[in-house]
Amino acid sequence: MPNFWSQDTRRRTIAWIVGIVLTIALIAVSAFLMGGSPPSKIVLATGQPGGVYDSFAREYQKRLGAQGLKVELVNTAGSVDNFRRVMEGKVDVAFAQSGTYQTVSDPERKVSGLAAIYYEPLWIFSKRDIRIEDKMAYRPESVAVGPKGSGTEAIAKAIIAEQGYDVVSPAIVNLTAAEARQQLIDGKLDVAFFVTSYRDPGIMELLRHKDLRLTSFRREAAYTRKFRGLTPLRLPEGLLDLKDNIPPENITLLSPSAMLIARANINPRVVELVLKVAQAVHSPGDLLDPPLKFPTLEGVDVPINEAAETYLTQGESFLSRNLPYRALRWVLLLKLLLLPLVAVWLPLVRLAPLIASWRKGRWLKRYYARLRDVENRLATARWPNEVRDGIIELEALRGEVQLISRKLPLQQQQDVYHWRLHVQLILIEAAERLDRMDAATAR
């Protein structure tokens, strides 16, 4: 008896373990297929402190925080550094400059592009008597190409190399935008490259300086064909300041696009929310960016994130459109929990009574088999003691079944009563046979 129930307990425990393991497995599979539950926090890589990336990042942080997504900002050296941080999993989203992805190695495609968000012109300032397209020798440390690991450095060195200059020449120096601007004004530099928005106050400061020249590209078509990440961008005379006539003439710039990039496995709901904020911030346009052009997939030279492509071509998903991000997180988390409930526990609950009924029916067959064995021994018994042993075994069987029957459901009690009637019938026959044997012995 104790062995029988300990075995039953073990089976019940195994069933629970199997159900729990299946639940965990289904939660893991559904989380993988659905991208998991949207996180409550992301890390956003910006750029140099005080730069335009940093400024836009703070606006994103404020707007995303109001939607329920906390944003931690991380200052970096620039685009190339941002790509590396995304590939290493140190940040979730980052600003980057088009044309710089080719300078990093990403064989596992860990980086995905979300959108181009605005034009980020390449500004090349030089002393007034210097034209960078005129091949000339530069003084040591007189050509600033941006910080090490920045997108500015990547595009500056590419253009310098295309013009036939040695990118490891002593003339090349890595400086921050602030350092390059000051040394250019002080006359320590001959040329400085900057990739930034026209909103950057440092650009306006350089444009107003009488001893400096902003390079206008005459062969923009040739450059843009050689460098796919660049777009010709024309600044009409006086566009940036009509009063002071800045620029003083029509200028043609080459412009990469500022992009949003992210981990390839970033949650799709985060992508939608980030792009929704990007639309609010960038779609109005400005002096250089046409209204409603950004964010866009045009100019993104990084493998496009599937959720970003869906959002920018088809719009928001139904849930994102109708639920705030805070509620959306809980709804998607609930879906992760309900899927195992529906797929595992609902069938399990419905099948459990049938399985239990089948298992409980097996014991009755075993007891009928034991009853038949005792009956056969009684039928062949030749001595009274053999009959008495059979009667004792029948009584023990009846006691076991009475204990078991107390734990059985009502629908199985009928089978128990049938078994007890059969036991009683055999007991009566055995008792009668024993009386006859005892009487025969007494004579």
Number of strands: 12
SSE sequence, one letter per element = HEHEHEEEEHEHEHEHEEEHHHHHH
Q: What is the mean predicted local confidence, pLDDT?
A: 84
C-alpha termini separation = 42 Å
**Using only CA atoms, what is the Rg?**
41 Å
Question: Total helix count?
Answer: 13
Structural class: alpha/beta
Low-confidence stretches: 1-5
The shape is rod-shaped
Strand order of the largest sheet: 2-1-3-12-4
Residue share in β-strands: 5-15%
Q: Tell me about the biggest sheet? A: 5 strands, mixed
Which percent bin holds the helix content?
Answer: 40-55%
List keywords for this structure.
alpha/beta, 5-stranded mixed sheet
Task: Report what the structure shows.
The protein is of the alpha/beta class and 443 residues long. Helix content is 52%, strand content 13%. The protein has a 5-stranded mixed β-sheet, sandwiched between helices. It has a 5-stranded mixed β-sheet with strand order 7-6-8-5-9. Helix 8 packs across helix 9. The two termini are 42 Å apart.
